Amino acid sequence: MKVKSNPIICGLDVGTTKICMMVARRDRDGGLELISSGYAESAGLVKGAVVNLDEIAASIRKAASEAEMKCGMPVDCVKVGVGGDHFQSYNSRGAVTIAGERQEVTDQAVDQVVLASRASVALPPDREIVHVLPQEFFLDGRGDIQNPVGLFGSQLDVDVHIVTCQKALCLNLINAVNRAEIRVRKVVFKALASAEAVLTKDEKELGVVLVEIGGGGTDIVVVRQNAVRFTKVLPVGGVSFTRDLAFGLQTPVEEAERIKKESGTVLTERLSDGDEPVQVLGTGAREPREVSRRVVCEILRARAMETLEIVADEIRKAEDAGPLVAGAVVSGGGSMLDGMVELAADVLDMPARQGLPRKVKGMKDDLIHPGYATAVGLTMFTMGAAPRAPSPPGFLARVLAWVGA
Ligand SMILES: Nc1ncnc2c1ncn2[C@@H]1O[C@H](COP(=O)(O)OP(=O)(O)OP(=O)(O)O)[C@@H](O)[C@H]1O
Ligand SMILES: [Mg+2]
User: Class assignment of domain 88-166?
Assistant: First the structure.
């Protein structure tokens, strides 16, 4: 496919622990080339919800300024990743009758059937649809159709996955981005962006679950036959692991974070009695002390087991999606905790691998890290665009229109 110009695509991942901006452009052949990135520590966001507008806006501006400086041009419009446990998803179905003498499915009929699928979900007034993702089309009851345009039939049905959010929480994030002098072109459920960056074509076809363990949350995405079947956000992430350690060892959070990264593992069976004890700073005026590494790792393992067992329960709920032949892919910064991927394979009872963002042209090696999956995925995000998924005529679309996106 030839692309006329070199459109710039900016992805902004506003995470609980870090903000990441990626600037990419489409090359002449439609391929993606990364031309800049910016990073800042995040402040003012808890589990996907803005708790301090000024702080989060300042963090976003810092990441944007770094990206702007590196590529020498202003970033004025972004695709922003949104998430948090206020996201809820449903599977739904829509149906339309194909009119006309020829009874040929047109683009408009596809738009109509996808819009009809939204109507069957009664949303409370504080919620909004973010994505309507077609899974499979049916013509006169015959399924397995990815794109029905041009086919003949009298009734068109579609199964869709609908992702919804709490309006006010999304609006707060859009507002924070605007305060950083950036317009929002599109909001994307960030779990889907990560899926786009780390899952392979084969995995998506065979059946796979992405488990993205971030700082404030864990996102679950089940994809099979190239369609999103199930999504869920759990309010537990790497920050919960660090907090457990801080409480358990009675040490400051920064110290617990250091210990988790330097000495932590969730595979306690691999520890030996000869392991060096861990030096732990005390809180307040308390003296530093030594703690057995086993104690540190038992705390982390307990949280990991609990989290992964909830993930396993959620995947069971999605089981009507069929078997996940390609197993699990574990991404997000939390997947860097030693032993996490192996433990996931054990608890979820399926093969697991670590999910790194796919390398695109111009991407430096330091960005091939599980914590950058969302930001890289935002620049790639096309899910829901194929074959057609009209933008919902809802509140978010109107907000994006107000800001002139
Ligand atoms: N080497 C490591 N060992 C253990 N944990 C790690 C390691 N590196 C990063 N983490 C953890 O990963 C978490 C951050 O992950 P990530 O960058 O994916 O989160 P985020 O995008 O900021 O948050 P969210 O997506 O939940 O809003 C932190 O809790 C951090 O402690
Ligand atoms: Mg994240």
Answer: alpha beta
Burial 7-23 (b: 16+ CB within 10 A, else e): ebbbbbbbbbbbbbbbb
Q: What's the pLDDT at 384?
A: 47
Q: Please name which of 124, 106, 35 lies closest in space to residue 73, comparing C-alpha atoms.
A: 35
Among 80, 82, 336, the mutation site with the greatest number of ligand 1 atoms within 8 A of its Cβ is 336
* Sign of the four-CA dihedral 320, 321, 322, 326: negative
Spatial distance between the Cα atoms of 91 and 85, rounded to a whole number of angstroms: 18
* pTM above threshold 0.85: yes
Distance between Cα 320 and ligand 1 center (Å): 31
How many helices (H) and strands (E) in the chain? Answer: 11, 18
Ligand 1 center to 110 CA (angstroms): 40
The burial class, CB within 10 Å (0-12 / 13-18 / 19+), for 260 is buried
Of ligand 1's listed atoms, the one at least distance from the Cα of 338 is 3
| Residues flanking ligand 1, CB < 6 Å | 15-18, 42, 48, 214-217, 237-239, 242, 257, 260-261, 332-334, 336-337, 371
- DSSP conformational letter for 104: B
Measure 19 CA to ligand 1 centroid, in angstroms. Answer: 12
Which pLDDT score, from 0 to 100, does residue 319 have?
A: 67
Residue 91 near residue 116, CB atoms below 8 Å: no
Question: Which residue CA neighbors atom 30 of ligand 1 most closely?
Answer: 238
293-317 vs 238-249: helix crossing angle, rounded to 10: 150
Per-domain boundaries in the chain: 88-166
pLDDT tens-digit readout, 338-370: 999 999 999 999 999 999 999 999 999 999 999
Å from CA of 23 to ligand 1 middle: 22
End-to-end CA distance of the chain: 25
For residue 35, give Cα distances in angstroms to 19, 21, 26, 190: 17, 11, 10, 21
Rg (the chain; Cα; Å): 22
Partners of 289 in beta bridges: 280
Mutate which of 17, 47, 56, 188 for ligand 1? The one with the most ligand atoms within 8 Å of its CB, which is 17
Distance 237 CA to ligand 1 centre (A): 8
Q: In what order do the strands lie in the sheet with 155-166?
A: 88-97, 155-166, 127-139, 142-145
